Amino acid sequence: MAQVLIRNLKPDVLERLKARAARHNRSLEAELRHIVTEAGSPPAKITEETRRLQALFAGRAFTDSAVDQRDDRKR
Question: How many angstroms separate the CA atoms of 2 and 37, rounded?
Fold first, then answer.
């Protein structure tokens, strides 16, 4: 497993991270691992959100906005 060292972290940031870890019943190291893992894996969340939006708008018809834009330019 890789290791990461973060230098020059402001004390108030560290305190907020410790508080966050405590709220999630995790050690600081486990909380930081969770944060970094989440930040390094956004495609799954994007895919999930895309599917949710597709389901929300399924079966709806939308007009072509290019037609409206052309009409607006003619005014």
Answer: 12
CA-CA distance, 29 to 18, in Å (whole number)?
9
Rounded distance, CA 73 to CA 57, Å? 29
Q: Which two tokens mark 21?
A: 């870890």
HEC string of 6-62 equals CCCCCHHHHHHHHHHHHHCCCCHHHHHHHHHHHHCCHHHHHHHHHHHHHHHHCCCCC
Report which of 3, 7, 5, 27 is spatially closest to residue 17, judged by C-alpha positions. 27
Instruction: Report the distance separating Cα 61 and Cα 43, nearest Å.
Output: 27
pTM above 0.85, yes or no: no
- pLDDT tens-digit series, residues 1-23: 899 999 999 999 999 999 999 99
